[in-house]
Amino acid sequence: MQLEDQGATPDVDPTVRDDAPLSMDDTIRDTLRSLQSPEDSTAAAPVDGVVAGAVEDPEAAAARIRDAQGKFAAAPAVTDPAAPVVADPAAQVEPAPNTWKKEAAAQWGTLPPDVRAEIQRREQDMHRGIEQYKTAAGFGQSIERAIAPYAQTLQQLGVSPDRAIGELMAADHKLRHGSPQEKSAYFAELAHSYGIDIGQATQAHAAFNPEQHALQVQNQQLQSQLQSFQQTQQQQAQASLDSEISAFSADPSHSHYETVKPQMIALLQAGQATSLADAYEQAIYANPTTRAAVLQQQATAQRDEAAKKAQTAKAAASINHRPRPAMPVAQPIGSMEDTIRATLRSMQGA
Question: How high does pLDDT run on average in the chain?
Answer without folding.
Answer: 74
